[in-house]
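Example 3.
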Amino acid sequence: MEVLSEGKGQLIGWHDPDEAREWVFKNKSRALKDKTMSAKEAVSKFVNDGDFIASGGFGHVRVSMAIIYEIIRQKKRNLTLAAKVGVHDIDILIGSGCGSRAEVAYACGHELRGLSPASRRMVESGQCKVVAEMSNGGYQWRFLAGMMGVPFIPSRNFLGTDIGNYSSSKVVKDPFSGKPINLIPAAYPDVAFIHVHRCDIYGNAQIDDIRALDFELSRCARRSIITTEEIVDNELIRREPWKTIIPFFVVDAVVEVPYGCHPCEMPGMYYYDEEHIAEWLRLSKTSEGVDEYLQKYVFSVDNFDDYLEICGGVRKLNYLKRRESLREPMIAPWRKEG
Amino acid sequence: MTITGIAEGKYNLREYLAFIGASVLENEKSVFVGTGLPIVASMLAQKTHAPGLLIVFEGGGIGPVLPELPVSVGESRTYYQGIAATSMHDVMSLSQAGYIDYGFLGAAQMDMYGNINTTVIGDHDLPKVRLPGSGGANEVASFSKRLIIIIANQSKRTFVDKVDFLTSPGYLNGSGSRERAGLPRETGPYRVITQLGIYGFDEKTKRLKLISLHPGISIDEVKENSNFGIIIPDIIKTSPEPTEQHLKILREEIDPAGIVLGK
C-alpha cells in the first residue's frame, strides 16, 4: 500500500504479531490456577520500572485505585502511561512522578471538574513528556488491533489533523476504495489493571457496567491484573457464561479489593468521593501538596482497608452508595467560588 | 454590550448558550456529547422539543434519560434508563459507520474553517498550556454528520488565524479538503455558538459565516472579536430567547447546583 504520510509520534508498545503470539505461548497459561494475591504482590510481581501501563475503566470510573496506590507506594519509576481517557488515574500517576512519559488521548483534565493541576504542571515543566498524541477512539482501536493479533487496524479518524501528525499512525491509500485511510498500530501494554464487579479465583470476570475499553485491553495486555469488589465461585461464572467479559486465560493476578475504586465511581455500587477528589485537586496545585496528599493517603498506610478508614470508613462509603443511587444531591466541592 | 436578557437579569450567559445549543438539536436524531454545556443542551432538548433525541456517550452509554448532570462521559448516569450500555468500540464504530447525526464539542481555539484545538497552546513539545487533548473529539469531528461547536468566549484569542494545534477537523483548508484527506463525505462543522451569535459555514468556501446575532449584540463586536474575517450575510437574523419553561428546566431539573450553568 502506498504510504501517504506518517505521524512523528513515538511508537509505544507495538510488537510484531508473531513475536506477540510467541510471548503469549510462553507466558500465558491455559490452566485453571488460583491467581489470588494481594495488591502488593501483584504490583511487585508484574509492574516493572519502565513498563508501558494501562489503567482500565474510564479515568475516574471503575479504576483500580488500589493498584495505582500500590504502584506509587512501591515507587515504580519511568513508567510510560497509556493516557486513554486519563482522568484521576493518570493525574495521580503523573503527579506522583511514577509516570514520566505518556501517549495522550486525554490527560491533564478532570472532565467536568476542570483541568488537573498536577499533571499539567508536570507536562508544562517537562517532567512528563508527551511522546505521542492519540484519541480515545484511536486508543480503543490500538487495543483492538492487539487483541486481534494484527499489526494495525484501519480507521477514518486522525486524517488531516495534528493528532495524526503527532501520533504513531500512518496514512495509506486504501487499495479497495482508493481513498486515504488511517492505520492505527496495535498496542500491547506490559501491564493493564482493571477493576470489576466480580471475579473467580482463576480470573473469569464479570462487569456490570459499560465495558469502556476493557474487553480489548484485557486481551492485548501482556499482563492483566484484575481487582474485584468480590471473589465469586467458578460455579457462578459457569451458570451464566455470557456474562463473562474477561476470561481467566488472559489474567495474571486476581486481587480482592472491596471499594477498590475509591475515590472513583464504581457503577451500580458507589459514586465519586467528590470531597476527596477536591482535596487532591487543591493540594496537587503544588508539588509540596502532592507530597502531603501522598504521605497521608498512600505512604502512611500499607493496605487499602486502612486507606478507606482514613477516608471516612463505613459512614463515607454508605454515603457514596446513596449518592450512586441518586438518594443524595449532587455536590461539587472542587468548584471555584465566584 | 451584552445580550439583552442578561442585562435584564433574566438569565446568565451559560444558560443562554445551553438554550441555543438545545435549539439546534432535532427530535429523533442522535447526538454524541461531551461534558459540560453540550450535555446540558442535550438534556434540555430532550426535555422540551426533542424527547426522542438519542444521546450517545463515548464510554458506551446509549439512549439514556439522564437523571442528573454527569461528571464523566463514562459514568453510570450516561446509561441511566438507557437502551444499551456497551463499549467505546461500539459507539466509536457506530459513529464511523454513520449513525451519529450531531456531534457537540467545545474548543480552546478555532479557525475560520472550524478546525479546533484542545491540545496545546504554544509549542507541542514544551507547551505554554497543556490542554487535555483530543479525548473523543477527533472522532466526533471526523464522523458526525453535523458538528456543533460551542465557544463561550469568542475573542481574538479564541477565533484565530491558525490554531496552535489542529486537534479536531473542521473543513481543514476549505472546500473539498475533508474529502481529499479521506474523511467521510458530507460531514463537518454545522454551527458555531458563541456569546455573540450563531454561525454557520459558507456552502462554497466552507468559511465561517454569521447566521444570527444574539439580541443586544452588534455586528462590530462580532468583527472585533475575531482574528479572521467572518462572512457577514446581507440579512442577519436575531437569535431566539429562552422561555420561562426552558429556564425552569435548566435551573430546577438539569443543573440545580449550578455546576455548569452557574447560579
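Chain B touches chain A through 63 residues (CB under 8 Å). DSSP finds eight helices and 14 strands in chain B.
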